[in-house]
């Protein structure tokens, strides 16, 4: 048990060290760019995981909130002319408030009704961005978003500095999510996912806690969106499209819904595979489709969930063997 | 008298599932509600525990009206319940299922979780202690780390009891606790209910197993087609004309012939 924990810690620090030194050992700007985007998607997927994976409410408006974050940052910095970090904080506040308002209505529905409702919310956000040309630039997109402003001596003009900035937010996201999941609050979310009726009878306010989960998910979507806008400096309405939500969802499902490492694993693997399969262009989906189907059948909790379950089974078997040995020993003692 | 219903009625469209039922749960006793299938027993439970609101009538707990309170607030006042299907999280361990049971007696929120405050650590320890305490109460300490799906039906019922007890209730409603459990094990569950009463927790249960009810319950209400047809001690109930009619579907002298 402690050895396993030690191994885990060792592996995690190794991984963190690797991503920390990566920009120093490679000069492949394209690869760094892909990594930054992967970090940003991962943050968004973590938000989705908290709601869909831990609380049991599958929101299909996630790309909408991602885009809401991106466009709010763009409008606040360019149109309103606020300083970058003030705009950044206001963006997070604004996305969370919109999340709260929509959550209050959406959470009156359950299960597939909730999914359909949020699907519509996502589409409405898309339509607003697409059609409100005066504010969002419509189909032409929004150009000239500034890169993150400097904090004291730290400047974020270069790609590498952006890499570290986004990595910082990713690590922060993971730490925050880890702490939430491993707390009474996280247990409360999981109790709701398991059975809302039972959760209510043990005194949990499901309305309040579902809303907290929903707001958190929109917060992380907004965070990812804001980082995306200032990294790419140009955004178009397609980032709020439903296909984007399904991308997030596929990352989550393949990595492992309702697991802590799922979002990182899923996002990295899928982004990496789709990079490798670039030559197939849109036919890539012909590869993804079957992979997804096979995974859902044989590992419904994704790669991460599969490993966790496998470990649990192994442990249970070990325990069984040990207890059997104990019994044999006892018998020998008696016979002797 | 711990809990009292006054003219409680629930209509689903044209169907009156619970019809004008006045019943009181007596403190420190095992109370039982019996009746044929579809008599409205579970609906009655659902009304009292706030699962859905009644069409008319009132519910009082310790003299305070709780008629339209949501179930989570009712739980906080000290009323717990279990379901016919235990509703546990099958893939998690027993302990993980039960820790959250004491959540309603804690205050820590999202910020405590993110900042890992001393309050959170203290309350997590409190929930853990409570979980071990109730597991000990239901004799499942050695299964604390077992995954729920590997337990027997009777053990699952015990886990459900433990979860209800973790909320620190004064009154526990048990919906068919012995359903799907063999006779030997039923006895164990009956013992457990007596143990709850010995520890000052009032019990009210729905049950089909007559033998069990008649041996442990002190106060019984019989429902038929949503109406209360009898109330009293096991002897009263056994000799009640209308109860016999409801159960056997005939008049009493029919069996003499």
From TrEMBL, chain A:
TM annotation in the entry: 33-52, 59-78, 84-107, 114-132, 163-181, 211-236, 248-273, 285-308
GO cellular component, one term: plasma membrane
Cell location: Cell membrane
Keywords linked to the UniProt accession: Cell membrane, Membrane, Transmembrane, Transmembrane helix
Highest rank taxon of the organism: Bacteria
Topological relation to the membrane, as annotated: Multi-pass membrane protein
MF terms (GO), sorted A to Z: branched-chain amino acid transmembrane transporter activity
Classification via InterPro entries: ABC_transp_permease, LivM-like
PANTHER family, A to Z: HIGH-AFFINITY BRANCHED-CHAIN AMINO ACID TRANSPORT PROTEIN BRAE (PTHR30482:SF10), HIGH-AFFINITY BRANCHED-CHAIN AMINO ACID TRANSPORT SYSTEM PERMEASE (PTHR30482)
Protein name: Amino acid/amide ABC transporter membrane protein 2, HAAT family
TrEMBL record, chain B:
One GO BP: L-alanine transport
Annotated signal peptide: none
InterPro entries the record matches: AAA+_ATPase, ABC_AA/LPS_Transport, ABC_transporter-like_ATP-bd, BCA_ABC_TP_C, P-loop_NTPase
Pfam families: ABC_tran, BCA_ABC_TP_C
A GO CC term attached to the entry: plasma membrane
Residue ranges of domain ABC transporter in the record: 3-250
Keyword field: ATP-binding, Nucleotide-binding, Transport
Any one GO molecular function term: L-phenylalanine transmembrane transporter activity
Top-level taxon of origin: Bacteria
PANTHER family, sorted: AMINO ACID ABC TRANSPORTER ATP-BINDING PROTEIN, CONSERVED COMPONENT OF ABC TRANSPORTER FOR NATURAL AMINO ACIDS-RELATED
Name of the featured protein: Amino acid/amide ABC transporter ATP-binding protein 1, HAAT family
Taxonomic source organism: Piscibacillus halophilus
